[in-house]
Amino acid sequence: MYKLFLFTLLLFGQAAHAQSVEFSKDRFGDDKEGLKAALRELKEGDSSYEMDPPRYEQALPHYLAAQKFNPDNAELNLKIGDCYLHSGFKPRALSFLQKSYKLSPDADPRIHYLLGRGLHLNGKWQEAIAEYKAAQPATGAKTPPHPGRYSQEDI
């Protein structure tokens, strides 16, 4: 019984510790200037990241600046990892993607695919295969076509 209690305590202790921290006045009200600067950096990064095509290398420095203020935001860590995957420094992506997943496993539907790429590029083959498999759509689900490309029905 004692072991079960310790296991439960450890499990919930870790779950409570690993949570994504949002950029909000409630969380960072004591550092309003730092929050404003971080939000400006996020906005600049997002404008490059959301372009068509995305400007990953332009977004990355802004995201890294915002991450210095708040290193525990799952979405931001995922975007940094994604930017690194599209840069000349691909292996750096893994730590940011792993942190994003640890903070919020459901933050983005692409997380398993991106983790698979990060693991793959770091030579962690078996772990990469597991993440790629987790990224596959459920059986019977239709995979959406890539934007700008034809679907099977169009051919």
TrEMBL record:
Residues 135-155 are annotated as: Disordered. Residues 1-18 form the signal peptide. PROSITE patterns: TPR. Keywords: Signal, TPR repeat. TPR repeats lie at residues 74-107. Pfam families: TPR_16 (PF13432). InterPro entries: TPR-like_helical_dom_sf (IPR011990), TPR_rpt (IPR019734). This is Tetratricopeptide repeat protein. It comes from Hymenobacter qilianensis.
